[in-house]
């Protein structure tokens, strides 16, 4: 089975600490914590745990760390480390309230190859995470090969859920994977892809983000390329669901984008669905969009979307049928 098809939605159980291992076999003991392969370590974070403490090693689930920031300091590049973050009841229905504190941090990932995983019940929105500061960014990714999954990002009067960055010298957010996350209406932006290449954003829900679901600011860096954005839900994002201006060779498919004004044919913000202005050679296909076929109206396919140069937009499903052209 290809490695890309292997998922670790929940960490494996830690072995009994009294397990003696096998005499004469180096590495048979597990005294340095749970391992996912020959070197990677799982670090546990639970700010609601009665014994949470950032002064310990974090490898024991019954003696977890208090913050993701501290767990990141213990990770090593490309070792296969996982930060497992316990669920909380910050915003739930019908749950008991022993775990009321959300994760509330602004962290920056500088270690390549780290996976940050929210451990929550099946079918839950994810582990609730708010920025530490008003309009802050929950997770800033400055390293390659980072994976984030299983969180519900809740804004504080704006802010961003996840931001991949690049500075051209030492900071590279390439190969960023974000999956099975939720982004709420109090965020300005769900995910920012600042010159991110080869990202994979899938099976997320962007619920009325105030400005953008997925965004890049062409005035700062722009030029995201070779990203796959697929199987996501976008509901009434304020400015655009997906705005990858200046982006090249991105692959956008099987997303479900709803805009109330477009659906009721009463006007909608220009480029409210997919905006690839000034991009080139992108593919956008088999997306479901709540607009109509070209009709010279504020809620039609051309008004709600913009194609880049030499893009290929095929078989996108609209309210009154499939599109057969790029949006004009």
Rounded to an integer in angstroms, the radius of gyration calculated over CA atoms is 21 Å
Specify the helix fraction band: under 10%
Largest sheet: 10 strands, parallel
How many distinct beta strands?
Answer: 28
Note poorly predicted spans.
1-9, 12-19, 32-36
Computed structural class? mainly beta
Mean pLDDT: 89
How far from one another are the termini? 43 Å
Can you tell me the overall shape? globular
Strand content: 25-35%
**Number of DSSP helical runs:** 3
- For the biggest β-sheet, the strand order reads 1-2-5-8-11-14-17-20-23-26
Would you mind describing this structure in some detail?
There is one protein chain. The chain is mostly beta strands and 328 residues long. It contains 3 helices and 28 strands. It has a domain at 32-84. The strands form 4 sheets. Strands 1-2-5-8-11-14-17-20-23-26 form a 10-stranded parallel β-sheet, with helices on one face. A hairpin with a 2-residue loop joins strand 27 (317-318) and strand 28. The termini are far apart.
